[in-house]
Design a protein that fits this description.
Elements (H helix, E strand, L loop, with lengths): L1 H10 L1 E3 L3 E3 L10 H15 L6 E5 L2 H13 L3 E4 L11 E8 L4 E8 L8 E9 L3 H13 L2 E11 L4 H7 L4 E10 L5 E3 L1
Parallel strand pairs: 3-4, 3-7, 7-8, 8-9
Antiparallel strand pairs: 1-2, 5-6, 9-10
Helix pairs in contact: 2-3
């Protein structure tokens, strides 16, 4: 998506360790008009898939999931990274290793909000090595839910996550795929 690529080029910053900071418009301060366009792009691709839920992981995926859900007119469910007292014990759980934060954590989703008859669209802001998405897939499998597709705002194409998910048979739509980036700020899109 050219609009997203242009925004990444103008506002994104590359940091050591293959970190792309887009916190000025995507995952800290949020450009709502841009997110609305991203949500519509996902809707245009998957609108005929019978999607009943959008599933993401807290926190950065929630905004884009809500933007897409507005068009699909379905609820957003987000996997929590820490178990709170009010979620109860009747949950699906998966262990995820975070590339960005360098730690492992359990994600949980209440069994009240994800069921076998659901057709789920998975969304996240970034895809690098794919651990978060694989955790969400595990949760959908535990629920018996069907995965209609996976929507990613920014995929780091030079890392294995996107290729792994596609080899697993999932329909992955990434709005911007980065083939390379360097600390001098050069970003090359696919």
């Amino acid at each position: 998506m050219k609009l997203l690529e242009d925004t990444i080029k103008s506002e994104g910053r590359v940091y050591p360790g293959n970190i792309l900071k887009v916190d000025g418009f995507l995952n800290h301060q949020i450009d709502v008009a841009l997110l609305d366009k991203l949500g519509k792009e996902f809707y245009d691709r998957y609108k005929d898939q019978g999607i009943t839920k959008i599933l993401t992981i807290e926190a950065s995926g929630i905004a884009i999931a809500c933007a897409a859900a507005r068009y699909f007119e379905v609820p957003v469910v987000f996997a929590k990274k820490s178990k709170s007292l009010n979620i109860g014990n009747d949950v699906y759980t998966s262990r995820v290793s975070s590339y960005t934060h360098g730690k492992d954590y359990d994600i949980t989703v209440s069994r009240n909000y994800l069921h076998g008859e659901d057709k789920v669209f998975l969304i996240d802001d970034f895809l690098a090595i794919g651990n978060a998405m694989k955790g969400l897939i595990d949760i959908c499998n535990q629920a018996g839910a069907c995965i209609a597709g996976i929507g990613i705002c920014i995929e780091k194409g030079f890392q294995t996550g996107g290729d792994d998910l596609r080899k697993m048979g999932y329909d992955v739509m990434s709005l911007a795929i980065i083939d390379s980036m360097s600390e001098d700020g050069e970003i090359v899109f696919r």
